Amino acid sequence: MTPPPTDDPPGAPGPLARGAYLLPNALTTAALMAGFYAIIAGIQGQIVPACVAVVIAGVLDGLDGRVARLTGTQSDFGVQYDSLSDLVSFGLAPSLLVWSWSLSTLQLSGPLGEKLGWLVAFFYTACGALRLARFNSQAGVADKRFFQGLASPAAAGTLVSTIWFLESRGVAADAVAWPMLVLTVMLGTLMVSRVRYASFKGGGTREKRVPIAWIFLLLVLIVLLAIDVPAVLFTIGVLYVASGVALTLHGRYQQRKRRLRR
Question: Where are the domains of the chain?
């Protein structure tokens, strides 16, 4: 039986999907709420709760994508919504937090210091937006085993864990204003760089088993977190940031060796 004729040209897209999947988008909404709370807490001077909120947003952001893949509820809407949530939680919230905690004290160094403080905070936010835009545009062709540039959740986690660690040790914010400025610029630059970072997503294999050593390391991590959360998160952030630089330099070294052999 011949189907009824339609006015749609050949190859035209189908009807727009209505609605959205509840579970992954609920997790994304919770991450967005945590990022928004971090902004409010940072403005009010509640530094540690703001840092904790950004960390929680990072955990929820890691869960929503995995839940969507496991339940087969991935969608273009979810991808775009997740990016907007990431911009608030990992682009805007950390920059406002580092400015309100430390960079705002640069005004004591004069007009130049005051301008540098908020400009560096804006630089970080803009780099986060560029990082997310590039990630979305390359999602279909990029190697899923690696990130090109430091992922915005990792950059935000490193920045807020540094703040949390220094705050827990009673370090005065104005005493580390210039080092925090350098760190903020460095993390923003790494987000838009071509430095490669491990994504821990694997190469598309469905294998779910991991070596027993990974379970042991997870146990050690849990114990260490119970002892000193900010110190452990700060150490993880520093090691991960350094790992990308080391991975990229090693890759370029190997490329040069292969060229010399030819």
Answer: 22-142+151-193
**Are residues 118 and 99 in contact, defined by beta-carbon separation less than 8 angstroms?**
yes
Residue with tokens 């952030």: 237
pLDDT tens by residue, 59-106: 999 888 788 778 887 788 888 899 999 999 999 999 999 999 999 999
Cα separation values, 240 from 154, 197, 203, Å: 8, 8, 20
Render pLDDT for 156-176 as a digit per residue (tens, 0 to 9).
Answer: 999 999 999 999 999 999 999
> What gap in Å lies between CA 167 and CA 160, rounded to an integer?
10
Beta pairing partners, 148: 196
The residue assigned the tokens 């509820």 is: 73
Could you tell me the fold of the domain covering 22-142+151-193? Four Helix Bundle (Hemerythrin (Met), subunit A) (1.20.120)
CA gap 8, 125 in Å, rounded: 43
Question: How far is the CA of 237 from the CAs of 49, 56, 142, 153, in angstroms?
Answer: 19, 15, 24, 11
For 113, the token pair is 């210091």
Q: 228: which DSSP letter?
A: -
Helix (H, G, I), strand (E, B) or coil at 71: helix
pTM: 0.85
